Amino acid sequence: MFEGTYTAIITPFDEKGIDYKSFEKLIDSQINGGINGIVFIGTTGEPATMTEEEKKELRKFALEKVAKRVPVIFGTGSNCTLSAVKNSVCAQEEGADGILVVSPYYNKCTQEGLYLHYDAIAKECSLPMIIYNVPGRTGVNILPETAGKIAHSIPSVVGIKEACGNLDQIAKTAKAIEGTQLQLMSGDDKLAVDIARLGGTTLISVASNALPAEFSRLMALARAKEYDKADALMTKYSTFVDLLFSEVNPIPVKYACSLLGLCKNVLRLPLTPMSEAKAKLLREEMQRLQII
Predict the structure, then answer these.
(1) Cα distances (angstroms) measured from residue 132 to each of 13, 91, 249
(2) How many domains does the chain have?
(3) Taking the model in full, what pTM does it have?
(4) Residues 194-211: pLDDT tens digits?
(5) Residue 246 within any structural domain of the chain
(6) Measured between alpha carbons, how far is 256 from 262 in angstroms, rounded to an integer?
(7) Domain that holds residue 153
(8) Residue 289, in any domain of the structure
């Protein structure tokens, strides 16, 4: 359902709040760059430091600005199942095309708890749901057998965004969901082509905030099984991607976008601007690639 490259978009801030003028420019750059869809208020969008009113205002803005040019997906996850249900129902009522639901963080629930969490959301919200496995942030790993159980019994779950970093596990997940409606999606720019080889259909990208055309092409090549060309493109941008994750996301990508004139380099505490030493490396790599 959601194939190609989707940008996990940053939220531009200024000293007063959300910088909607920059946001408008950023959204247009994504769509003009050929991106297949946009994920708002996912991890890269810094939702943990936004108020509920800000999120509601952002969702309204996003839908109006995108204006159905590409699908809009909202992050609705929470470590409280009731809150995740409420967020997801709101997204449906407001007109989103889908939801991205991270596994419950901090609580460290069991695999059965994971299944019941997603089942509870699906019972109240009929939007296509992408579940998000990022154990490095959440402390919980969606195991292949759990993904398979979800795929075979919760039809509104249409994708799993994999950012566990373990290709052996991802291969087992691909096998567990084979033949179902559940698409394998990469949540890791660096592994996008490898995951495509396992049957992955989609990249939910951080790097595409800065380079939408290039990372749209990457997945287009991978989906066409032109893996050699996709590998070559990934090799070209490999150091750039590494530097985007040299500090916690979205610190580096927000700095990169500020160099491109797309936003200010403003984050909300506890996130802080990129250290000068690493910022220098990222800036120099962008100059080498003639991005800036």
Answers:
(1) 25, 17, 16
(2) 1
(3) 0.96
(4) 999 999 999 999 999 999
(5) no
(6) 9
(7) 4-224
(8) no
Q: Say which CATH number the domain at 8 has.
A: 3.20.20.70
- CA torsion angle 90 92 96 102 (round to 10): 70
Residues with a known catalytic role: 132, 161
C-alpha 245/C-alpha 268 separation (Å) is 18
Q: Are strands 37-40 and 4-8 parallel, antiparallel or unpaired?
A: parallel
| Domain-located, residue 185 | yes
Angle among Cα 228, 233, 234 to the nearest 5 degrees reads 95
Q: Residue for token digits 């490095």?
A: 136
Residue 102 lies inside a defined structural domain of this protein: yes
CA 202 from chain centre, in angstroms, equals 10
In the block, residue with structure tokens 């600005």: 65
Tens-place pLDDT, residues 49-90: 999 999 999 999 999 999 999 999 999 999 999 999 999 999
